[in-house]
């Protein structure tokens, strides 16, 4: 017999969440906590009617998405259409380019989101470790945020967006040499981040430092 357990379980109502999107969206990282590798799956909760329960976005990685309302009620906007989604509603968005967002219309709304690609196996995305560090950054605990990014990035540790965010956290925490190394690596891997870095106030402690990569 293998050492893999027959099942893993968590309660989507009681599981501790992570406040993201400026603190208005409560994310439960289901995939990470259950160790799911075959598909993307996360839950989002809104304590009060009017709170965001699906962030405003397009699926830039190109995934199809399914939203299932487990509790409460959601008004889902998909493109130019709004859909009233009650308990048990399952709404499938096959086109990744369609902009979508959702607001809870009842207190205690919980939405499960499932996603994946049609033409390739699932793999995790770098937004997950970045999101995991958002609560620490929101309270200004930059050293904790940097530590979370370091330990949670996994296969995305060399991703330029992860390295850029880590550079910002390290700069604010006062570890300027490490911050410069991460920023330089991020900009070398993705030159499009240079404009963002030029005006990012989180990187301000680095601008007078020898080795500032924007000259």
What would you note in describing this structure?
The protein is α+β, with helices and mostly antiparallel strands and 215 residues long. It folds into 2 domains: 18-116, Jelly Rolls (Sandwich); 127-206, Serine Threonine Protein Phosphatase 5, Tetratricopeptide repeat, CATH 1.25.40. Helix content is 29%, strand content 26%. The protein has 7 helices and 10 strands. The chain has helices spanning 30-34, 127-132, 134-138, 142-152, 160-173, 176-189, 193-199, and strands at residues 18-20, 25-28, 40-46, 52-57, 64-71, 74-78, 81-85, 90-93, 100-104, 109-116. The strands form 2 sheets. A 6-stranded antiparallel sheet has the order 1-2-3-10-5-8, with no helix packed on it. Strands 4-9-6-7 form a 4-stranded antiparallel sheet, with no helix packed on it. The mean pLDDT is 95.
Summarize the structure.
This protein is an alpha+beta fold and about 220 residues long.
Blueprint of the fold:
Blueprint: E1 18-20, E2 25-28, H1 30-34, E3 40-46, E4 52-57, E5 64-71, E6 74-78, E7 81-85, E8 90-93, E9 100-104, E10 109-116, H2 127-132, H3 134-138, H4 142-152, H5 160-173, H6 176-189, H7 193-199
Helix pairs in contact: 4-5, 5-6
Question: What attributes does this structure have?
Answer:
single chain, 215 residues, alpha+beta, Jelly Rolls, Serine Threonine Protein Phosphatase 5, Tetratricopeptide repeat, 2 domains, six-stranded antiparallel β-sheet, four-stranded antiparallel β-sheet, 7 helices, 26% strand
């Amino acid at each position: 017999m293998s050492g893999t357990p027959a099942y893993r379980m968590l309660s989507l109502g009681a599981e501790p969440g992570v406040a993201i999107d400026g603190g208005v969206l409560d994310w439960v990282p289901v995939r990470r906590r259950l160790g799911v590798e075959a598909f993307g799956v996360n839950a989002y909760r809104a304590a009060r009617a009017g709170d965001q329960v699906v962030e405003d976005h397009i699926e830039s990685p190109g995934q199809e998405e399914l939203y299932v309302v487990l509790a409460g009620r959601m008004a889902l906007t998909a493109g130019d259409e709004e859909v009233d989604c009650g308990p048990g509603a399952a709404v499938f968005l096959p086109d990744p380019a369609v902009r979508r967002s959702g607001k809870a219309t009842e207190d205690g709304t919980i939405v499960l989101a499932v996603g994946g690609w049609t033409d390739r196996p699932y793999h995790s995305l770098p937004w997950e470790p970045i999101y995991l560090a958002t609560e620490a950054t929101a309270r200004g605990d930059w050293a904790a945020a940097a530590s979370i990014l370091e330990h949670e990035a996994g296969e995305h540790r060399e991703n330029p967006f992860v390295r850029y965010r880590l550079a910002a956290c390290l700069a604010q925490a006062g570890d300027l040499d490490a911050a410069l190394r991460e920023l330089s690596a991020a900009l070398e891997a993705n030159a499009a981040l240079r404009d963002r870095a030029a005006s990012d106030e989180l990187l301000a402690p680095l601008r007078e430092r020898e080795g500032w990569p924007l000259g």
